[in-house]
Every structure is written in structure tokens, then in C-alpha cells.
Amino acid sequence: MSMFCYQCQETAKGTGCTVAGVCGKKEDTANLQDLLVFALKGIAVVAGEAHKQGKLDNTTGLFICQSLFATITNANFDDSRITALIKEAFARRDALKLATAYTGTQDCVTWNGSEDAFAAKALEVGILSQANEDVRSLRELLIYGLKGMAAYTEHAAMLGFEKPEIYEYMIAALASTTQDLTVDEMVGQVLKCGEVAVTAMALLDEANTTKYGNPEITRVNIGVRTNPGILISGHDLHDMEDLLEQTAGTGVDVYTHSEMLPANYYPAFKKYPHFVGNYGNAWWQQDKEFASFNGPILMTTNCITPVKDAYKDRIYTTGMAGWPGAVHIPDRPQGGRKDFSAIIAQAKSCQPPVEIEKGEIVGGFAHHQVMALADKVIEAVKSGAIKRFVVMAGCDGRHTSRNYYTEVAKELPKDTVILTAGCAKYRYNKLNLGDIGGIPRVLDAGQCNDSYSLAYIALQLKQVFGLEDINDLPISYDIAWYEQKAVVVLLALLYLGVKHIRLGPTLPAFLSPNVAKVLVENFDIKPIGTVADDVAAIMAGK
Questions:
Q1: Residue range 380-406: average pLDDT?
Q2: Per the domain annotation, does 356 fall within a domain?
Q3: Are residues 57 and 174 in the same domain?
Q4: Are residues 474 and 388 in contact, defined by beta-carbon separation less than 8 angstroms?
Q5: Which residues, other chains included, contact 136 with Cβ-Cβ below 8 Å and sequence gap of 6+?
Q6: Model pLDDT for residues 494-521, shown as the tens digit of each residue
Q7: In this predicted model, what pLDDT tens digit does every residue of 299-332 receive, in sequence order?
């Protein structure tokens, strides 16, 4: 076995990728990412001592976040940049050891081999180095939750919003994966991850809305214009801002792709007349859609698929995203902007995008907008016009089994409303599902990063209806997952006490039978079934 990775939903045979990643990740890349996580554990152990001594600042936590972000599925495939992060991790660890006079002897604290030794060491410290499958399962569940939290926290930090307590928790949690804990203690760490995830998501929501205003109901154009364009994908709204500022007046239009779609909902971005709308669909269709777009593509975060020859000379990465051979746009200087001049220059020489569809899609139903409609929503519930809300948030993916979510959306009765966030919405956001008294039957809160809105709405409705238990609300959860940000959203829901969650299209491979049993018994997490059976159960509140 040359590698082992089972962190995403599409992992080979539902058990684990052992030769190459289904995502396109090569064995060397997978192993380097394992070594990076190992190095981060070493930082975390020593950083715990630094915190006790009052010698820890936010830079350590941010570095851990950014490095974990680089290991998320479909984020960074560039071995040279991952290697650089490993070297920096060891250097940061050793600096903390010196500053704290730390003398611990754990391998992740002391090992400091040369780059030539990285490959062999990576195989030694990978996921399967923990022989006990239940311990391995709980540790990896926590690490994947931390990876998701890292993404949210990093985005907030890029906008100048940080909370030391989030970093402190992440450091302590990562260090805990090196300790011999009881099962109950490990389960406690997992639920704590969900608790802090709510804080991290709330922080990102505060950052985005403070900077760009509250998302508002928006009709988004999905057609094209005749100017050359730049396509921006991923999740980073600060990158979106920089790109719109620099393309203003250049004759180059800007389009969003996949998870960047919700940028269309923010008031701050609507002032740019060259911001056209959204091009294409979910991340996994990018190979065809990037080819037909004709202009440059900027990947700001994860959701990169193997780059095709048709557009390999037009793809750029920035932030923690990376693809070997792609031009990488460096981080912005303190108080400055990223330099997108090379992308803009190339765009000017490109043909306009080929139109692949026409029309509009409606979104912008984050918590502030939904609460503005609260009276209308509450009256619809009380009158029986709305019988049930169904949260169908999460991720999209390649598997045809995800057609299940399209069919569920079609089959849900016309007195139900779908609450969504993340790219899972592309399975149904272009269906004509109508409205209920002017309330659209699909309410899109935004990116997976905006899942906080869905939790906030549920908690507000619980209060409005005077309920003791969030599970007494007329809300069901039918969640699609793919990568680690969806994992941390799941942990946040579990922390909030939400039960009866359907999770699909398959349960995570990293859940051992015993760990899966704990989640089923304590939270009634269940796999998806047939569309007819699940719709009937959802409407019955089961």
C-alpha cells in the first residue's frame, strides 16, 4: 500500500484510496499531507506549553489553520508547496521548543529529518499507524472536523477577524490526538469540536457581513455577455473583492463559479457593473465548463479537479489552493491587495465565454434575510401553508447516487421549503419548484461556509415557537457530504442537539462500526434510503 486516505465521501470502494486519490491526488502528495499533519501535531504539543507560559500568539494558530486547509480534499496538489509547509512547521515547532525549554520526547516533537527522509517518514506516521480502528476512527473524525474549522477560521482571519480561543482549542484538540485517551474522552473532544465550530462559523459570518453587508434576495444571471471574462471559484470573498476592484474599467467581466455563487448576494459586490453573474454548476463539472469559459480561472480555495489541457494555461491558484504548474498568486501584503494583473492581462486576449445556459437563479437567504421575512414565515407555518422545512445543505459530487437529492427535491410536497447552503444546491437550485405565498421553496443561504445561517434560523424558530427541544421544530435534515467542511458542520449540528439526520450518499468510511454505532444510538444518524421512503419519513418527522 503506497498511501491511505479516506477523508472524502468518494474514497475508493467506500473504504480508502490506496494507490491514488479518487480526487486526483497522487501517492506522494497524499503522503506529504500526512507528514504535514504529523508536523502540526508536534507544533500543537509544544504550543500547549507555550500557552501556559504566556508565549503563544495568533500566528501559530493561523499557520496551523492554513496548513490544515492545504490538506482538505481537492485543495492543494502541489508537492513543492506542501513540502515548504512541512519545513516551516518543523521550524516553528523548534522555535517554540527553544522559547519554552520544552523537553518532551514524543516523535512528533523531536523528529527533524531532512527532506530526503520525508517520504519514508510519511509512510511511518500515516493514518494506519494507529492499529486500533476505533481510536483511529475517533482521532480522524476529530482531525477532519479541525480541517473544516480551519477553513472557516482562515477565511475570517483574512478579513481581519480572529478569536484566540478558537486557535487555542484547535491546538489543544490536535495535541489530544497524540494522547492515550478513553473512548469517552475522545467522543467529548469530537463534540467539543462541534461547539467551537459554531463559534468559528459565527465569526466568519460576522467577518463577511461586516465587510460586505448582509446577503439579500438576489436574482443571479446565469448567462453571458460579449466581453472577455475571468471566472473565480472557491470560497474566499476577500479575493473576490480584490479581483472586482482590479478589473473595474478594464473591459473584462467577472463571473462566479460553484461555491463563489453566493458572492452575488452581497451588497458590496453589486456596485460593480462588470460583475455579470454565475457560470456553470458544481465543482465536479469544471473540466467541461472551464474549457468553454475561454478566459482565465482563479481558484481561491479547494474544489480543484485534475486540470485538463484545454485550460491548463488559463488556471491560477491563490491562498492555500495549489496545482503543479499553475501560476500561484502570492498572498497580499499587509494592508494591501493581491496582484491579479497577470490574470487580467491574459483575459484581455481571450474570447468571451461560450454560453452554456440562460436565465436566473434566486438566492441570498442567509439568516438576516430570512429573519426579515420571519413574520411571513411564521404565519405560513401557523396556517399550515408550510408543513415542513427540509435542510438539504452540504456538498455535491460526481456519484450518480447524488441524483437522490434532485429526486427528493422534486418529490417533496409543495407545502415544504428546502433550506440549503453549499454546492449541494446545484442538484436542485435550477428546478422550477415554485413558492409558498411568495416564499421560494428553495432558500439558499450561501456557501458551505454559511451553514451557520441554517443553525441560526433553527435556533431562532425554536425560540419563536417557544419550544424546549430543537428537534420539536418542523425541520428535517437530509445532508449531503463530500469533504471536511461538511464534517465540521455535522459536528456543529450534533453539538446543538440535532437528531435524526440523514447523511448521504454514503456514511463516512472513517467511521468504524463501533463509532458509527455510538452516533446512531446517541443522535439517530442514519443513511439515506429510497426517495419515496425518505420523503414519507421526513414528512412524518422521522
A1: 95
A2: no
A3: yes
A4: yes
A5: 127, 128, 130, 512
A6: 999 999 999 999 999 999 999 999 999 9
A7: 999 999 999 999 999 999 999 999 999 999 999 9
Judgement on whether residues 136 and 178 belong to the same structural domain of the protein: yes
C-alpha R_g of the chain:
23
Taking the C-alpha atoms of residue 439 and residue 380, their distance in angstroms, rounded to an integer, is 9
Residue 7 lies in a domain: no
My answer on whether 312 and 288 are in the same domain is: yes
The DSSP annotation for 56-94 comes to: --HHHHHHHHHHHHHTSTTTB--HHHHHHHHHHHHHHHH
**CATH code, 418:** 3.40.50.2030
DSSP secondary structure letter of residue 248: T
pLDDT digits (tens, 9 = 90+) for 205-239: 999 999 999 999 999 999 999 999 999 999 999 99
Q: How confident is the model at residue 525 (pLDDT cuts 50, 70, 90)?
A: very high
22: domain CATH number is 1.20.1270.20
Tell me, rounded to whole angstroms, the distance of Cα 158 from its chain centroid. Answer: 16
DSSP for 146-162? HHHHHHHHHHHHHTT--
- Residue whose entry in the numeric block shows the C-alpha cell 462588470: 274
Q: Which of 195, 211, 227 is the last residue of a domain?
A: 211
